[in-house]
Design a protein that fits this description.
The chain has a single domain, classed as Four Helix Bundle (Hemerythrin (Met), subunit A). Helix content is 81%, strand content 0%.
Length: 118
């Protein structure tokens, strides 16, 4: 579990650094990876199981965290689009806002909550 939290922290902080440099594609990819790590923290906490891939992650979220599923589902296309389309700062901000929303509706480890709220 601690490794998942560390992954979230590293990717979220890295995304902030990339955003400050104006590297929005890198920012979006790192925020997406942070989002997936955050989802895995939730899933592991409740189920003691990690998904094998994105499809399984979405099915598990839909079953056990429907509020989180709706948020992640809306944001997933931003992640996939980042590999083939230009990324603007607003896309990064929307993804970061999605992470904040999840933090408000789910039980949050202290390190994640503190990082997302600053």
């Amino acid at each position: 579990m601690e490794e998942l939290i560390n992954t979230f922290v590293e990717e979220y902080e890295g995304a902030r650094e990339q955003f400050e440099k104006g590297k929005y594609k890198n920012t979006l990819i790192l925020l997406s990876k942070a989002l997936f790590a955050w989802c895995d923290v939730l899933l592991y906490t409740r189920l003691s199981k990690l998904p094998a891939n994105h499809s399984e992650r979405f099915r598990m979220l839909e079953s056990y965290f429907p509020e989180v599923y709706v948020i992640v589902d809306e944001l997933f296309s931003s992640y996939t689009d980042a590999y083939s389309k230009p990324v603007v700062s607003e896309s990064c901000e929307a993804l970061q806002d999605g992470i904040r929303k999840i933090t408000r509706v789910a039980e949050v480890p202290k390190r994640i909550k503190e990082l997302v709220e600053r």
